[in-house]
Each structure stands twice: as C-alpha cells, then as structure tokens.
Amino acid sequence: MSLLGQLKAAGRYGTDRLGQEVRCRGYRRLRFSPPTGGPVTHDEALKELSRLAHERAFGGYVGSDTIIQAGLDALLAGVESESLAMLAGLGRNEELEAPDLFERVLYELGLDVDVPAEARAARWALAYWLAGQMVDGSLDPAAGTFRIWRDVAWDLNYPDELQPLVVCAYNLDDWDENWEYPSKSSRVKRSRQPRVS
User: Fold this and answer.
1) What pLDDT, in 10s, does the model give residues 160-197?
2) What is the pTM of this model?
3) What is the end-to-end Cα distance of the chain in Å, rounded?
4) What is the H or E stretch that residue 27 is in?
5) Cβ(146)–Cβ(169) below 8 Å
6) CA 68 from centroid of its chain's CA atoms
7) Roughly what angle, to the nearest 10 degrees, separates helices 98-109 and 64-76?
C-alpha cells in the first residue's frame, strides 16, 4: 500500500470531493496550485521540494508551514518517501519537527544539496542556481537579478561576470511604474501627424 493509502486508512487526512482541501490531524490546509490551476504533478512536487532545499542550503529562511505544505503537496502528487508522510502529517504544535523531517525527506529522495564550504564558491553556486531558475522560468527575471545583486554580487565585490545582471537589477530598482516610454506604434503615429510651424 502506498504512503498516501496508509494515511487515508489511518484517517490522518482526507480530501473533499473536489480534492481542493486537505485535512491533516484536524488542521485544514489548502493545496498548492501551480499557475496553471491544475493539481500538482509528481515532477512539480519534486521541483518545489528541491527549490526549498536550495533556499535553505544557501541560507534562506523557509518557514515550517511552507515545508509541511510542500510535503503534503508531494504526498498528494504520489511522491513516496518514508519520512514524507510524517512531514505531511505534522500539526501546528509539531512544526518544530519539520526542519529535521524535511532533511530526512531530502536525503531519502536524493534531493539534498551540497553547498561548497568555501564562501566565495558558495556565492557562485547560488548565482548559478538563481540563473538556472530564471532560465527555466521558475523565478521571475527581475526578482532573480535583484537576488543576484543583493545576495551574490556584493559578497563577491561586484565581479565583471555579474555586471550585466547587477546593472539590470539596479535599473529595475529605480524603475517607476508611472514612467512612460514611447512604443513603436506611438512613434509611427507621431511621424504621420503634420508638423505645426
């Protein structure tokens, strides 16, 4: 029997008839829905677990509630791991156990992240990971360039290799939503208007 089946049999969680809400030890949790609005797939769940693992490995804060929700989404998507069911079933008063269980889940799934021990190499690893996230579309380019500027470039003393991203982040940081810039269509319209002398 799958872990999902074991939890259902034990009565530790269930879904409503639409599969939109999950009850875990009496606590109601809403399912994560990807931008497409459909249910979380196996690959999407693994990708989210990997993203959270990288965030934590590079020193980012990930709350226990987020970890538990990711575990629950992964379990519902059919990801199987011994510790995943325990992580997904944690209640609010057990959230302190989530980080340790999450580390066990990552190890069991082979998703644990090795960050280089040397600080400079670790910052470069973070830059490559963020760039990869921007390329595959899972991280907004504006947010990614800002994080590279804030979390990487400063620590590395603004290396030449990161200069284009730093300039982009700096320009985006100064951007004002009220600024207008001429589009190609407005330039064409202006060129067709008669000149007033």
Assistant:
1) 888 888 888 777 776 666 766 554 544 444 444 444 54
2) 0.68
3) 85
4) strand 27-30
5) yes
6) 14
7) 40
